[in-house]
Amino acid sequence: MPRLPAADAAAPFPPELARLEDEMVRCRRCPRLVEWREQVAREKRAAFRDWDYWGRPVPGFGDPDARVLLLGLAPAAHGANRTGRVFTGDRSGDFLFASLHRTGFANRPAAVSIDDGLRLADCFIAAAVRCAPPANRPTPEERDTCAPWLEAEARELGALRVIVCLGAFAWDAGLRLRAALGDPTPRPRPRFGHGAEAAGARLALLGTYHPSQQNTFTGKLTPAMLDAVFTRARQLAAGAPVRGAA
Question: Which one of 89, 115, 118, 129 has the fewest beta carbons within 10 angstroms of its own beta carbon?
């Protein structure tokens, strides 16, 4: 089975992360998602008819020593479900990686394939749901079934300090992840919004609008707005206080 590249060719994933990745890509726990991801991989999009689609769950990607976790919703049908790497090969990823490059988290401004030379520094990217869902809408049951993969991955990221949640779905998943790792969700429950921050005993949450075309083409999310969130993530990772926290 093809291996996903590590954050740095000279520093491969630690053994436990590599083992976890190997288990994850074989997961078939959600029949609806398995059927859809494999149907898309067979039928393909005309523009990608020469591609050998990944068509499996998509593991996280990045620096195993990252202090910042970027959490998205799910793989795009003809993006990560095709390329095998999260946010790689779609318009959302184009917008995202350009910002990560400008803010010093990525060595390249674009992601087109798993062998394109992209490397992340102090950043790890994952999705709340690991298989491409129909209409990009996973069910709550699929979210919960997939959650143990995210939890296991996060436990292996020992330096993790900040979760940047790309959209409301990821914000909810981030709160659930923190609770699973021993950080109970405060009351009242922190509300999602662009630039929203939520303190935790170990992990801070930071919200941003998802870099989908619906948000970026309409100007709801601009490059400057996303750059500001990633700059803030670096500050929080370095120990800056969460805004509004006591």
Answer: 115
